């Protein structure tokens, strides 16, 4: 290998490193701008539901309006991203909260009841829950596949513990995948109902007992 070819390789490697660093900076900037908009959307949702405008969102996030449209072709796609981000964050938080529970059935109960207990944390006001209920079905008509993907982390959280419960001889559903999906749908329906109706004292216990029985478990 000649000195010239070695020099050329060194130059190419240096340029590749520079481009890689530039790409990383660009990705970090994009992630930061999207995070600013998602956080701003949550603040506006808590204040006025989904009635805010894209102009208000851009102002709240501190970004130009064209920056918003660079990442979100429409306000509905932003709302979809908000729901997906909230679901991912919640599932991560619930998984961390259940780490000390060695029993998969106990973890499953924790996940199912945690969704409903969010309503208690909002002191019955509904807050973000009312936004989710009012927006969910409209987005479902427009983005059914994307919304299903946004809600999938919770289904997977349930499925992991259902399978663990089967292996431990504690659960016996006919079809674990369908069971996880049906339970996620049931939990969402109860959540939607109580976002506008008072949460009964034993609502979470009854929900859990129904789910446990459907999974072939035994109340303990």
What is the approximate shape?
elongated
Order of secondary-structure elements: HHHHHHHHH
Radius of gyration: 23 Å
In the CATH classification, which architecture of the largest domain applies? Orthogonal Bundle
Number of helix segments? Answer: 9
Q: Report how far the terminal alpha carbons are from each other.
A: 75 Å
List the uncertain runs. Answer: none
Largest sheet: none
Helix content range: over 70%
pLDDT average, as an integer?
A: 85
Number of strands: 0
CATH class of the largest domain: Mainly Alpha
How does this model look, in words?
There is one protein chain. This protein is mainly α. 79% of the residues lie in helices and 0% in strands. It is built from nine helices and no strands. α1 crosses α2 (54-61) and α4 (75-97) runs parallel beside α7 (144-167). It starts with a helix and ends in a 6-residue tail after the last helix.
Primary descriptors:
mainly alpha, 9 helices, 2 domains, Arc Repressor Mutant, subunit A, Tetracycline Repressor, domain 2, 220 residues
Topology at a glance:
Elements: H1 3-48, H2 54-61, H3 65-71, H4 75-97, H5 104-121, H6 128-142, H7 144-167, H8 176-196, H9 203-214
Helix pairs in contact: 1-2, 1-4, 4-7, 5-7, 5-8, 5-9, 6-7, 6-8, 7-8
């Amino acid at each position: 290998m000649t000195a010239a070819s070695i020099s050329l390789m060194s130059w190419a490697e240096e340029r590749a490193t520079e481009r890689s660093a530039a790409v990383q900076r660009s990705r970090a900037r994009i992630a930061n701008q999207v995070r600013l908009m998602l956080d701003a959307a949550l603040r506006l949702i808590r204040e006025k539901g989904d009635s805010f405008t894209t102009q208000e969102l851009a102002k709240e996030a501190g970004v130009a309006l064209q920056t918003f449209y660079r990442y979100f072709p429409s306000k509905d796609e932003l709302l979809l991203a908000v729901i997906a981000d909230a679901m991912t964050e919640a599932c991560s938080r619930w998984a961390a909260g259940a780490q000390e529970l060695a029993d998969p059935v106990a973890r499953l109960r924790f996940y199912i009841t945690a969704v409903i207990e969010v309503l208690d944390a909002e002191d019955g006001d509904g807050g973000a829950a009312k936004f989710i209920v009012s927006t969910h079905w409209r987005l479902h008509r427009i983005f059914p596949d994307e919304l299903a993907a946004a809600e999938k982390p919770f289904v997977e959280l349930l499925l992991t513990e259902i399978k663990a419960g089967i292996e431990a001889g504690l659960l016996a559903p006919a079809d674990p995948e369908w069971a996880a999906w049906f339970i996620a749908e049931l939990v969402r329906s109860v959540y939607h109902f109580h976002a506008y109706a008072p949460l009964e004292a034993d609502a979470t216990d009854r929900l859990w007992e129904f789910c446990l029985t459907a999974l072939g478990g035994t109340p303990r």
